[in-house]
Amino acid sequence: MYTLFWFRRDFRLEDNTALHYALQEQHPVLPIFIFDRHILDKLEDRHDARVNFIHQRIAQLKQTLETQYQSSIRVEIGTPLEVFKKLVTEIPIASVFTNRDYEPYALERDKAVDDFLKTQNIGFYTFKDHVIFEKKEITTDAGEPYKVFTPYSRKWKESLKQLSLQPLPMKHTQWAKVNPFPMPSLEEIGFSASQITLPPSDLPLSIVKKYHTHRDFPALRGTTRLGIHLRFGTVSIRQMVAQARLLNEIWLNELIWREFYIMILANFPQVVNEAFKPAYNHIPWRNDATEFQKWCEGHTGYPIVDAGMRELNATGFMHNRVRMIVASFLTKHLLIDWRWGEAYFAQKLLDFELASNNGGWQWAAGTGTDAQPYFRVFNPQSQTEKFDKQLEYIKKWVPELGTSRYPKPMVDHKMARERAIKTYKEALENTKA
Description:
CATH class of the largest domain: Mainly Alpha
Low-confidence stretches: none
CATH superfamily of the largest domain: DNA Cyclobutane Dipyrimidine Photolyase, subunit A, domain 3
Distance between the termini: 65 Å
Mean pLDDT: 97
Order of helices and strands: EHEHHEHEHEHHHHHHHHHHHHHHH
Family: Belongs to the DNA photolyase family.
Organism: Shiella aurantiaca
Structural class: alpha/beta
Oligomer: single chain
Helix content: 40-55%
CATH topology of the largest domain: DNA Cyclobutane Dipyrimidine Photolyase, subunit A, domain 3
InterPro entries: Crypto/Photolyase_FAD-like_sf, Crypto/Photolyase_N_sf, Cryptochr/Photolyase_FAD-bd, Cryptochrome/DNA_photolyase_1, DNA_photolyase_1_CS_C, DNA_photolyase_N, Rossmann-like_a/b/a_fold
Domain Photolyase/cryptochrome alpha/beta: 1-132
Enzyme class: lyase
CATH architecture of the largest domain: Orthogonal Bundle
């Protein structure tokens, strides 16, 4: 009999909660990974760098298990329910251990797998690993989920004092001794190699120490670029928080924002398709497809917006300050539905995380929890003067700036700002009438 450990978004062999408990079971642990067709078939880009990242990481884990522990990872392609129906006919399984995910599809997937395994008398055990506090572990005094970040973060930090962030011990003697399993190629999965450079998982201590002074300037290397590693669990959130607590409270706050949005998604799953504030579902978006395409390509005539979109398209990364600027521009200047922008970011961002992406877009559009008020409209020019005064970042991504090849602004800022405020105000007043 085997204990199966199911890798999902926890691609590491150390300080991994579900793996820690699986390795304490009496049966040897056999790890599996599933390239989930339900997710992969929706990806339009067959060179998607995130699939490359996952493929590389699973191959590395597999090699480590084979060379150090005479074990391996069984890698499958298909929908998880189909895969488990096949596995139970091929492997004697005592139980399945995995770490929890809070996205709506993940919850449906896990329920379907759990229901099936019950019919086979196989236990399905899930653990908290991707966050420090989940769902309703941090609540108001009335036991309700927080809807505002500052009191949530205050309670979060207070609760953190009660926790040990020491790495969990791993009983590596408990791995199943098996011959190496085959590793499917990218092509067998339906993808091919990406040209996008993937960031390392090392925590850049010098950057974290200066994070509070450098993080808002896109020309500087002032952020950690660890988003993709947090997303897929190649680093431990507990170790990141332990370091942040020692090194920089502003970076710790960013990690708490991540948990805040994961908590919001877990408790208010309607945010995936609707505004967190229901009244904002009635905003009459213009949704001009031609204007949206110019925004996607970085041809709006607003240099800071265009630089951000071009950086995203070329690298899968966009600086966080610039993310706020381009999102504000799309939703306020162009009055294009935040869901359009959110979907585009979901296609392109290496560090795409449903909760944070949704939360960030709803924040920018004014529709979300603890969002900036609708009447605040970022001025791209003043944002440029404040955060890229020497145009270093802009000139890197918009080399034709100042020539006849660079387009004129597609919309006047003053007019667009007034139009946005008027549109929002009227829509909100109409919902009250």
